[in-house]
Amino acid sequence: MLYDPTERRIKSFVTRAGRLSTAQERALNDLGPQYMIEYAKAPLDTAAAFGRTAPVVLEIGFGMGQTTAHIAKHMPEKDFIGVEVHTPGVGSLLKLIGEEGLTNLRVIQHDAVEVLNNMIPAGTLAGVHVFFPDPWHKARHNKRRLIQAPFVKLLVDRLATGGYLHLATDWEDYAVQMLEVLSAEEGLQNTAQGYAPQPAYRPLTKFENRGLKLGHGVWDLVFTKK
């Protein structure tokens, strides 16, 4: 199944050039060839990419990569693929991969929808992480939000039976939308009554900590594929 929001000329992200630090640029040059997977319109052979066979978790929009690296470090039994469009974030995660010696993490710099459509075969993912996607908080921009029914259906198709979908947001109205969309997807089952407790494997980011101290909420959702 294919889902292409570009048919409506709507992107789920905004490309920001961003300035590369010296360390990020060095990581891209030195570690990119080893840890980056080039986008291609062909199914990805994960066993070849990682040099082993293990459960694969896909993270969409990893930002600067601190959470991604933390989870990969503490789950060495799983392989992780991080998808991000912004070059400074890619460089930052590659730097962390080098510093932590992470062998179970790879990076694809490309639009996640195209990666899912063309590189991830159906029923192959053990999990999908989408943490703090752009909330597009103005009402007229809500249609740009990533978590909508067609995209969730695509994620479910790519998950193996029993695989999980973990979302997190710090915007309450987006959390409400996420819960509605996931609950309406027949292929998913909620692991909680409503929102889930924060799983132990997801660390608090410094921005999340700051928000919590200010009384802001954070909502996690964890659903599994039936």
From TrEMBL:
Residues 140-145 are annotated as: Interaction with RNA. It catalyses: guanosine(46) in tRNA + S-adenosyl-L-methionine = N(7)-methylguanosine(46) in tRNA + S-adenosyl-L-homocysteine. It is an enzyme of class 2 (transferase). The keyword tRNA processing applies. S-adenosyl-L-methionine binds at E59, E84, D111, D134. It comes from the Bacteria. Substrate binds at K138, D170, T205, K206, F207, E208. The keyword tRNA processing applies. Keywords: Methyltransferase, S-adenosyl-L-methionine, Transferase, tRNA processing. Pathway: tRNA modification; N(7)-methylguanine-tRNA biosynthesis. One of its GO terms (molecular function) is tRNA (guanine(46)-N7)-methyltransferase activity. Its EC number is 2.1.1.33. It holds the Pfam family Methyltransf_4. SUPFAM superfamilies: S-adenosyl-L-methionine-dependent methyltransferases. GO terms for cellular component: tRNA methyltransferase complex. Catalyzes the formation of N(7)-methylguanine at position 46 (m7G46) in tRNA. Belongs to the class I-like SAM-binding methyltransferase superfamily. TrmB family. NCBIfam families: tRNA (guanosine(46)-N7)-methyltransferase TrmB. This is tRNA (guanine-N(7)-)-methyltransferase. The gene is trmB.
